[in-house]
């Protein structure tokens, strides 16, 4: 039964008018329900085909159809169809004028309103659907099934197909027909689930299992409409018996949610969840139909398009993993599996970044965006990582729990190194008290290994077909560090140009929108601009859009001066061919505004030769900054390379830093199970890029404005390195911005006096980057047992510092007067990366030596032991054994000091355990140790054990007295073990001895001992001698990056 297109236009126009109404707006879902109710008589007829109506209402869902028609080409087609003259063509092209507020559909409506068609006939959705299908069948980028519907040799004339429609429809319907062809009804947005439910209550469930309008419509006719007028007598249980996946028809994906914090993820989860590694590849839904012989493989992409031929290089890996063609093949009929397509390099034996995929996967037979890429190498090939099974041999697994589906998948797949494997995962029980710390540790390990993130899957069926659905049931949660506020900040970018897109401008619902897409870039000659005021040269890296609030602010407050590309003489632009798919800005800003940008990571855009932010978003707009403050192009490239190429740290310092940062990112005032919200914070940095000035960003729900989300250790690390490079290139000039705020300056003084474990802040005369939000510093008297943040020094709250002094750069130049103070700063720029210098006192009670170095080597099915965080300020000092009571202070003993650094030696308060294989080495125990004044070392772990037992027997009165004595200085000995790493047996014996000793902190938690190769002492001695301060000698600073490399080089493990 035909369905008039005018009925669809009635619905769309009603929704459009409702959005424009200033008062008395109705719910869009109510309008849609009323519309379906008014046409119920036509929709329930047995001869009604729902597919054309669904394709008309939801054109964006037809990813299999590609028309290759954009607004400009459609404008020319409409002009020829309607026989327009020059003046009317000019009116038709008014949508291209910035600020006009109209799109092509509005222009077509206005022309046909002035000069309507001679006769208006009813046009049906079936006619439009057939015409658009024929146009799509002639496009090379349509799916194979659509292209196959065209007869061989048949040509498709778009003018002929569309001309008959435009000459028959009235003005209002022509507007919506234009938007239908462009696959966007914006600003009207139709919710697919509301449309499906309005057409039939069971259609949403049917389309989940068989995501094809034509197939779902046939199923609706065969199994529902035969049962009765409405099909209400067919229950969901009956539907589940008849409805199952069909080979060759894509199954819809589960609902995906974003986790904004650890707490947010746990709020959406229950029971046992699978924490799978999030892979940075392309989604594949693989259909295997053994009845088709050699052509048994069919692959659907994330968009639903059939990409079997484009991914032909993956077929052999799939065949081997399923043993297709072999007698041992576990399949009898076929299966439907889910996986991720990746590129693997045999030479380096690792998975390559996402950018490499486009060299190996074509798009409808064409390799797009590879002009600036290197050729595909023979040692690179595609691989598949499986993570779910939806059907095996006609047995639907959509109603089976995730744990059972993965078990079936493991039985089915044969893993081949570099070609096919199962996703690596961990299991967490959300009902356990340690769930938060378990998830935090696993996620922190994922971050330190430079992986993309995690996917959290509850042990639920793939789809929930029950009538009473649990909130967030059968949903997947994506957890990336960039989803957590503050962890994805990049820096300031200059807005060098913009262009206008009519359809996007209409979504803002505000007048005078001149630009919708903004071109951001970095200064290529920043030094020349700052020193000699040269003409700025910008490299355009990305194109970004603004939300409605940001756009309103930009129009009212920024409104920059602009010129055209041809008339521009103020700035020089370099725009790579791949930027914005070849589009170019229509306006160039002579004094570029500043956007603060955040992103997920960095990648190499198509047809470009540099790294740029991936999925950039505008964090805030700065109205008080100049383009001179933006990132330089070199800084951006260094930052990107550091994040992509920096190897995972071998020690646990970065891991513990991320655990603490993730804990602080959770909303305040909410106690998570297995974790403390009163973590001692002493190592989170306040150093930010110039983009981090006073923020105009509204606070997030559930967060306290007094506690900004901490900066990630990796972000601080890369910013510090970028700052170090800037300071090396820039002359020493007075700062353009204000110095530290009063509270921050006061806190800096406390850092300077806090002892050798603190970083020396920059002088007030030193050029410093702009600070972020003013971080509140709590006065000494306000600290108590209920404070959520405690000072590490115990005497005064200090600003949060970076992990292991990673933000210390040469910008913080030394203007102190005394050589002694210079020596202290110089030596402690490479202080020991100990566990006690972390933001919190953390006990990894569930980590083994193997799991500390890598989190995804195995896929354990049991929940790991919890990671707990100390809950009291006193615990931050309870790691080492207590010193003997008669000699509490070193001053009373006349102790030896380091000949290079004196009391400032970073090895001063350390206790060393020497493995038996090196215990009798005079070069170590007598020479190297005596140079640093070290006398506290043992040759067997039992000495540490006895010391701990003695300290535990001290009376509470004496212990309290000791703790009060220890408030102003470093109060404990940090334990480290040294071994000959080349003697594997000696290393294993040392780890076993330490484990057998069962060392404990005073709070009863297990104590972990960092183990290094003994040669670390040699290198540290050389570096300390090299950088010691001698009278009359210009002090040479020690690079923090070099410091980290020393410890990483000799790291053995955590015992």
Automatic annotation (TrEMBL):
<dbReference type="InterPro" id="IPR012340">
    <property type="entry name" value="NA-bd_OB-fold"/>
</dbReference>
<keyword id="KW-0547">Nucleotide-binding</keyword>
<dbReference type="GO" id="GO:0006310">
    <property type="term" value="P:DNA recombination"/>
</dbReference>
<dbReference type="InterPro" id="IPR012310">
    <property type="entry name" value="DNA_ligase_ATP-dep_cent"/>
</dbReference>
<keyword id="KW-0436">Ligase</keyword>
<feature type="region of interest" description="Disordered">
    <location>
        <begin position="671"/>
        <end position="821"/>
    </location>
</feature>
<feature type="compositionally biased region" description="Polar residues">
    <location>
        <begin position="779"/>
        <end position="799"/>
    </location>
</feature>
<dbReference type="GO" id="GO:0003677">
    <property type="term" value="F:DNA binding"/>
</dbReference>
<keyword id="KW-0067">ATP-binding</keyword>
<dbReference type="Pfam" id="PF04675">
    <property type="entry name" value="DNA_ligase_A_N"/>
</dbReference>
<dbReference type="GO" id="GO:0006303">
    <property type="term" value="P:double-strand break repair via nonhomologous end joining"/>
</dbReference>
<dbReference type="InterPro" id="IPR012308">
    <property type="entry name" value="DNA_ligase_ATP-dep_N"/>
</dbReference>
<dbReference type="GO" id="GO:0032807">
    <property type="term" value="C:DNA ligase IV complex"/>
</dbReference>
<dbReference type="GO" id="GO:0005524">
    <property type="term" value="F:ATP binding"/>
</dbReference>
<dbReference type="InterPro" id="IPR036599">
    <property type="entry name" value="DNA_ligase_N_sf"/>
</dbReference>
<dbReference type="GO" id="GO:0006297">
    <property type="term" value="P:nucleotide-excision repair, DNA gap filling"/>
</dbReference>
<dbReference type="GO" id="GO:0003910">
    <property type="term" value="F:DNA ligase (ATP) activity"/>
</dbReference>
<feature type="compositionally biased region" description="Low complexity">
    <location>
        <begin position="675"/>
        <end position="693"/>
    </location>
</feature>
<feature type="compositionally biased region" description="Basic and acidic residues">
    <location>
        <begin position="749"/>
        <end position="762"/>
    </location>
</feature>
<comment type="similarity">
    <text>Belongs to the ATP-dependent DNA ligase family.</text>
</comment>
<feature type="region of interest" description="Disordered">
    <location>
        <begin position="853"/>
        <end position="889"/>
    </location>
</feature>
<dbReference type="Pfam" id="PF01068">
    <property type="entry name" value="DNA_ligase_A_M"/>
</dbReference>
<feature type="compositionally biased region" description="Polar residues">
    <location>
        <begin position="869"/>
        <end position="879"/>
    </location>
</feature>
<protein>
    <recommendedName>
        <fullName>ATP-dependent DNA ligase family profile domain-containing protein</fullName>
    </recommendedName>
</protein>
<feature type="domain" description="ATP-dependent DNA ligase family profile">
    <location>
        <begin position="384"/>
        <end position="524"/>
    </location>
</feature>
<feature type="compositionally biased region" description="Polar residues">
    <location>
        <begin position="807"/>
        <end position="821"/>
    </location>
</feature>
<keyword id="KW-0539">Nucleus</keyword>
<dbReference type="InterPro" id="IPR029710">
    <property type="entry name" value="LIG4"/>
</dbReference>
<feature type="compositionally biased region" description="Low complexity">
    <location>
        <begin position="716"/>
        <end position="726"/>
    </location>
</feature>
